[in-house]
Amino acid sequence: MTLAFSPGRIGSLTLANRIIMPPMQRYEGTAEGFATDYHVNHYARRARGGVGLVILESTAISPEGRLMSDDIGIFSDAHALMLSRVAAAIRAEGVPALVQLSHGGRKSRPHGGGPLLAPSAIAYDDRYGMPRAMTEADIGKLVSDFRLAARRAVNGGFAGVELHAAHGYLLHQFLSPLSNLRDDEYGGDEARRAALPARIIRAVREELGPKPVVTMRISASDNAEGGLTPEMAARALSRLAGHGLDAVHVSSGGLVPPAAQTMSPVESLACAQVLRAALSIPIIAVGGIKSLADVEAILSAGKADFVAIGRPLLIYPDLSRIL
Ligand SMILES: Cc1cc2nc3c(=O)[nH]c(=O)nc-3n(C[C@H](O)[C@H](O)[C@H](O)COP(=O)(O)O)c2cc1C
User: Fold this and answer.
1) CA pair distance 113, 98, nearest whole angstrom
2) From the CB of 162, is ligand 1 less than 6 Å away?
3) What is the mean pLDDT of residues 96-116?
4) Is residue 48 part of a domain?
């Protein structure tokens, strides 16, 4: 048997194989952030195609944290009800599913006139505009929004959640020294920049108990002078894992606009290897994986425990057409 098609464990879940569908926004949500029949069909079709785990696209925990005007959210029971239909359709194919919980921070498009929030008042670019540095009250609400979103997801039939701390969104903004200039308990040094993500993992784990899966997606490199490097990301995740993470999904980039990247981009796959050497929980690698030979090479070299295949699955829902 190939390594790709051998079963593997993430927390309490046993996946039938090592191939994961990573979160990919479909831009098909309603203006209010509801999932639709489109999502039911899209995700069920990919589950039927043979992946071991489906991770639903970025799903906002609050209206002010939405990434797009056509993304989806899980900030009310009505939103969760529609998502529970998506979860049921994936489960009917015998595949477990997680939902990726997100808040865009300074890269949000707040719905309904909500505030643009960030660790510090530093804009991503002129288009998003200047965010407001989060107060203790904002942080308390954020933690509560993550907790409630995770509860709704699991009540709705998902096996757990992936916390979005990649691609320059809010939790990534807290982890990176380029976007977090706070000098309180949430910023100032590496340990304090990890304090809010740690608080959120603890809150979600406390809410869900030990069984549901909790993963975190990170950008392990900012590709910019003074930003996160894979080694810094490995140290951050070493602090975070013990608060209740079952796996880390290693992506890269997104904190600063492409034109502001002062270093040549570090490939996500290379980052995964650094994280795997530093952590004892499963690592999911992603980025440009296109063939069975790619998957076998990554798994047999011990660079990761699972691989995610994104864009090819949008074109060919059946894994057999890709691998
Ligand atoms: C259309 C599209 C939407 C995406 N949406 C998300 C998302 O919601 N959350 C996320 O963490 N990554 C998102 N990504 C990144 C993918 O999960 C993945 O990391 C990236 O496509 C690289 O993997 P690939 O080379 O296999 O496609 C998106 C990518 C694409 C192409």
Assistant:
1) 29
2) no
3) 95
4) yes
